[in-house]
């Protein structure tokens, strides 16, 4: 089309979103970088000083923060395969045109409409020492396993939080994968069946490859969301027991909002972005190598 | 075992699993109808304990600003979704369909920004907005989330798959590019709008951190904050908290049920993945 | 930019322009009324009800004024105040949790109260209340009450287990006596958990409720300096020993997790370590079977907490005289009596105490007053570093609660506190600050 007019139109269309991202994402990000190199305290009457990478050095040698970093990374590493795999299984299970399947689909999707703060409050109750989760686990293991206070157990607390995240999120990923499943033409399966391929073989050579793109998207979205773990920590565990459920976002909000340590909180935020970028790039590279 | 029997058993198993999956929601409803001091016992297995009572809902109406919280959630999220659809679709379209200098760079940047978690910029954004005195309102809770890289990318992916004929017909008649987008392309892309709108709503409805940092008065606090507030308000009354939870999820559930069809079609068409 | 009044967002959105045009000042309060914005923490239901009633009473007495009262959740109260402070959005009158006053004052957000309040009022206040609100030579905040911290017990349970009931703060159980008492009570308790430490509470409770134990053992939170430092105090042997004892109780299963906050009320436990605010609820549950027992003496005498929510005035306010009037009203003897009737705290004014009151000698809450007047109460450190202090201590306590090594947890906490102090150059009080405060008195 006409070059100059097209340029003008494009900029007109794109500018609002770009402006929004510049003001509300890039600008604060730049501010975070700048603040992290100072001794900024929220509301301090003292003048601001540039202190260089002091906060970064402290954080990278602070066992508490390193633990939060490890928790965050570990949580994401566990959440991605667990939630993606579960979502795929659920999608396969409800991929029928029956009313029963439709009902099952709705039930699996139900937790998605629960805000994480509600999930946190609800599951705090469910995880109570004599509550339903404890009862169910004791029953299933015939009394062998009596979990006690799950949220205060250093080994069980983070997995318990993981369960709440997966419970809330899997239904959403299921719907995305379901849409993908339903777009795979039936004759592909029929042809494979005629060729003598069993269910597992059909799954591996037809379903998985055709779903590949969506699976990757689901995995990426899950990992990005996992890095943001905060609501459950703030409401259910406050980072406990002894830092077992502390995440980077939790520590950053605690530092900046509860203790006015703005520079330190900003440094934590930057480290989070670096970690996420690094991992996303690594995953992207892996994907590129496969393709 | 015949194929039909296997199928039937399979369906039963799936339904049982689904019921178990949704059980916490059922327990929430059950707990909301239980007197406060019997909730823990009842959920712990003593199901008959306490009878049925609606007192918790009355308590919630009395102890909280539920109506104001609900209104805030609706308005703030409505703004985010509506403005977001307009703004992000336009950008996605420009990136997908138009030739302009910087297009490639912008696309790369938008994809890169997508991985930046909101929480990473929440702290400086909070400090900056507070210093400007911009706190405690609906706009400050909505505007930062209008422009979304994820939405832009979703629209970009979708618009790339649209047949060119749609715009070309309008361009041939002399319509401007922007006008064509607004009156021709957008209306033809309803499924994509439905999908992106629903995804945005689902991701934003539960926003907790930002209002926690930025709001003080209950009349501008959204539902996710309302329940955390109620949870922290002495005396701790589990029945009340669960009743609030029930009221919280009903609107979104209703909205979802209504728009389910469009949402599913839209998810399929945006390809949410390549 | 101060929000002098608050309409609901809905009103503002729908009728904003019209209201502003008609009402001049733009306040829904009416053209002739001035609005006073007041923030308070969302405490017990009875406390909130009384405060609302007091505000109505004040409104009725002053038709020219209208008070808008907002309750903020305790969990994020400090953060909210801090954020509002940098936004220039503080209310006219705000409650502050005692030890945080120094920080807000240091930042220049508060009006010094010395010279602005009736001398009669100041003389009538309990010394602990004045101490709490004083920092860097000025009075910044005054409360209507001071807190009481002790162990509530069911007398019948103690008698049945053969446990001595202390008669006063100088008669407290020793650490070993308390250990033995817990064991004695556990013998007849189905789940062995006999003491409620309010482990379900959040952050600030742990500093308030358990720092006195450190002092009683010869340790403490902080050496005021200046500059304040925690190393050598918080991580010293006495402090470590005090918390090791608490950890021992938890490890032995003597402590109820109290997830439903009903442990004492329902009779699951015989002892509850908590402040005055549970007085009304516990009284309703157990009536005359209740007895107050002082915190244990770990060597240096029984020590307990003091300080509670106090009222402060924002520095950049416009209707200072009206706010002072409101503050004085809330601190008048009648209002003080109403407040403490609702929350069981100790009245801040001696003139508000009558011989028949529970705090008077022989009364069921007399222990609280005796502790405050007898020097058994230890204020939490008054320093701008307090947010860091309490954050670090709470984190350490929660870790200790879950089994962490006590010395390591406290050393880490002390290091975090000292680092925060160093980062802020020791939280100096500069001459410029002093000059401004003198001018504002």
Overview of the structural elements:
- The complex is a heterotrimer of chains A (291), B (274) and C (441).
- With 291 residues, chain A is mainly alpha-helical.
- Chain A has a single domain, classed as MetI-like fold, CATH 1.10.3720.10.
- Chain A is built from twelve helices and no strands.
- The longest helix of chain A has 34 residues.
- In chain B, 73% of the residues lie in helices and 0% in strands.
- Chain C has two domains: 205 residues, D-Maltodextrin-Binding Protein, domain 2 (3-Layer(aba) Sandwich); 197 residues, Periplasmic binding protein-like II (D-Maltodextrin-Binding Protein, domain 2), CATH 3.40.190.
- In chain C, 43% of the residues lie in helices and 14% in strands.
- In chain C, helix 9 packs across helix 10, helix 9 packs across helix 15 and helix 15 runs antiparallel to helix 16.
- The longest helix of chain C is centred in the last third of the chain and has 18 residues.
- Chains A and C meet through helix 11 of A and helix 3, helix 15 and helix 16 of C.
What is the CATH topology of the largest domain in chain B? MetI-like fold
Count of discrete domains of chain B: 2
Largest sheet of chain C: 5 strands, mixed
How much helix is in the residues of chain B?
A: over 70%
Q: Could you state the CATH homologous superfamily of the largest domain in chain B?
A: MetI-like
* CATH homology-level superfamily of the largest domain in chain C: Periplasmic binding protein-like II
Strands ordered across the widest β-sheet of chain C:
2-1-3-14-6
Beta-strand segment tally of chain C: 16
Sheet-strand content of chain C, in percent, reads: 5-15%
Quick one: CATH class of the largest domain in chain C?
Answer: Alpha Beta
Q: Architecture of the largest domain in chain C in CATH?
A: 3-Layer(aba) Sandwich
Number of helices of chain B: 14
Please mark out the parts of chain C with pLDDT under 50 across 5 or more consecutive residues, or reply none: 1-7, 15-29
Strand content of chain B: under 5%
């Amino acid at each position: 089309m006409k070059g100059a007019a097209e340029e003008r139109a494009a900029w007109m269309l794109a500018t609002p979103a770009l402006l929004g991202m510049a003001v509300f994402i890039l600008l604060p990000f730049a501010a975070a970088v700048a603040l992290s190199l100072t001794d900024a305290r929220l509301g301090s009457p003292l003048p601001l000083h540039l202190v260089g990478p002091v906060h970064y050095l402290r954080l990278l040698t602070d066992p508490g923060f390193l633990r939060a970093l490890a928790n965050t990374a570990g949580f994401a590493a566990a959440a991605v395969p667990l939630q993606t795999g579960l979502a795929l299984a659920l999608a396969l299970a409800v991929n029928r045109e029956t009313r029963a399947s439709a009902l099952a689909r709705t039930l699996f999707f139900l937790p998605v409409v629960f805000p994480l703060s509600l999930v946190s409050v609800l599951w705090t109750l469910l995880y109570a020492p004599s509550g339903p989760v404890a009862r169910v686990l004791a029953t299933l293991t015939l009394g062998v396993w009596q979990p006690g206070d799950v949220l205060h157990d250093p080994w069980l607390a983070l997995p318990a939080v993981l369960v709440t995240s997966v419970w809330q999120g899997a239904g959403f990923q299921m719907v995305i994968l379901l849409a993908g499943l339903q777009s795979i033409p039936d004759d592909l399966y029929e042809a494979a069946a005629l060729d003598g391929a069993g269910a597992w073989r059909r799954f591996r050579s037809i379903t998985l490859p055709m779903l590949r793109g969506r699976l990757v998207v689901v995995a990426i979205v899950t990992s990005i969301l996992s890095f943001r773990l905060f609501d459950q920590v703030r409401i259910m565990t406050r980072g406990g027991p002894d830092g077992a459920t502390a995440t980077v976002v939790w520590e950053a909000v605690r530092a900046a909002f509860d203790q006015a340590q703005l520079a330190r909180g900003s440094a934590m935020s930057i480290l989070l972005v670096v970690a996420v970028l690094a991992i996303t790039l690594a995953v992207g590279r892996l994907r590129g190598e496969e393709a | 075992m015949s194929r039909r029997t296997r199928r039937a058993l399979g369906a039963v198993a799936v339904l049982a699993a689904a019921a178990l999956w949704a059980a916490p929601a059922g327990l929430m409803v059950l707990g909301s109808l239980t007197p406060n001091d019997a909730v823990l016992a009842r959920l712990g297995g003593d199901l008959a304990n306490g009878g049925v009572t609606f007192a918790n809902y009355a308590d919630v109406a009395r102890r909280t600003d539920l109506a104001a919280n609900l209104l805030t959630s609706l308005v703030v999220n409505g703004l985010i979704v509506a403005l977001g659809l307009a703004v992000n679709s336009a950008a996605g379209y420009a990136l997908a369909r138009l030739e302009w200098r910087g297009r490639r760079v912008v696309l790369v940047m938008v994809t890169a920004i997508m991985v930046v978690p909101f929480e990473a910029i929440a702290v400086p954004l909070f400090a900056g907005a507070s210093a400007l005195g911009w706190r405690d309102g609906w706009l400050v809770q909505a505007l930062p989330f209008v422009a979304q890289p994820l939405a832009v990318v979703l629209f970009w992916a979708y618009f790339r798959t649209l047949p060119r004929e749609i715009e070309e017909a309008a361009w041939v008649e002399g319509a401007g590019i922007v006008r064509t987008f607004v009156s021709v392309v957008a209306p033809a892309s309803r499924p994509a709008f439905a999908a992106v709108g629903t995804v945005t709503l689902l991701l934003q409805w539960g926003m907790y951190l930002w209002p926690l940092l930025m709001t003080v008065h209950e009349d501008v606090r959204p539902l996710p904050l309302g329940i955390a507030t109620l949870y922290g308000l002495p005396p701790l009354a589990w029945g009340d908290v669960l009743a609030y939870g029930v009221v919280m999820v009903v609107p979104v559930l209703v909205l979802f049920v209504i728009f389910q069809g469009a949402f599913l079609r839209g998810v399929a068409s945006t390809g949410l993945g390549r | 930019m101060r929000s002098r009044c608050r309409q609901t967002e809905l009103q503002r959105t729908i009728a904003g322009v019209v209201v502003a045009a008609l009402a001049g000042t733009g306040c829904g309060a009416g053209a002739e009324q001035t609005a006073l914005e007041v923030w308070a923490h969302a405490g017990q239901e009875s406390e909130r009800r009384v405060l609302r009633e007091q505000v109505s009473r004040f409104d009725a007495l002053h038709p020219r004024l209208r008070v808008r009262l907002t309750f903020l959740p305790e969990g994020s109260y400090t953060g909210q105040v801090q954020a509002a402070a940098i936004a220039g959005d503080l209310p006219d009158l705000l409650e502050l949790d005692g030890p945080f006053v120094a920080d807000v004052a240091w930042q220049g957000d508060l009006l010094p109260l010395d010279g602005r309040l009736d001398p009669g009022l100041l003389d009538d206040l309990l010394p602990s209340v004045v101490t709490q609100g004083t920092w860097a030579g000025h009075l910044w905040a005054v409360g209507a009450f001071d807190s009481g911290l002790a162990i509530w017990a069911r007398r019948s349970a103690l008698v049945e287990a053969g446990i001595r009931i202390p008669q006063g703060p100088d008669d407290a159980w020793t650490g070993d006596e308390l250990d033995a008492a817990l064991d004695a009570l556990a013998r007849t308790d189905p789940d062995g958990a006999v003491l409620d430490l309010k482990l379900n509470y959040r952050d600030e409770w742990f500093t308030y409720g358990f720092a006195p134990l450190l002092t009683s053992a010869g340790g403490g939170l902080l050496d005021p300096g200046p500059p304040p430092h925690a190393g050598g105090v918080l991580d010293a042997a006495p402090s470590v020993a005090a918390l090791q004892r608490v950890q021992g109780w938890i490890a032995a299963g003597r402590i109820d997790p109290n997830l439903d906050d009903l442990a004492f009320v329902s009779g699951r436990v015989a002892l509850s370590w908590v402040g005055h605010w549970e007085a009304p609820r516990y009284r309703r549950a157990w009536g005359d079977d209740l007895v107050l027992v002082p915190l244990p003496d770990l060597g240096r005498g029984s020590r307990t907490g003091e300080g509670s929510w106090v009222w402060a005035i924002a520095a950049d306010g416009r209707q200072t005289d009206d706010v002072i009037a409101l503050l004085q009203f809330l601190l008048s003897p009648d209002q003080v009596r109403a407040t403490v009737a609702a929350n069981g705290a100790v009245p801040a004014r001696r003139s508000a105490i009558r011989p028949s009151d529970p705090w008077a000698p022989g009364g069921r809450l007399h222990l609280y007053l005796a502790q405050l007047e007898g020097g058994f109460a230890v204020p939490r450190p008054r320093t701008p570093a307090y947010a860091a202090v309490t954050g670090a201590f709470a984190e350490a306590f929660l870790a200790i609660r879950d089994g962490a090594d006590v010395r390591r947890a406290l050393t880490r906490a002390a290091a975090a506190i000292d680092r925060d102090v160093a980062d802020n150059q020791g939280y100096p009080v500069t001459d410029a600050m002093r000059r401004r405060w003198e001018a504002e008195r």
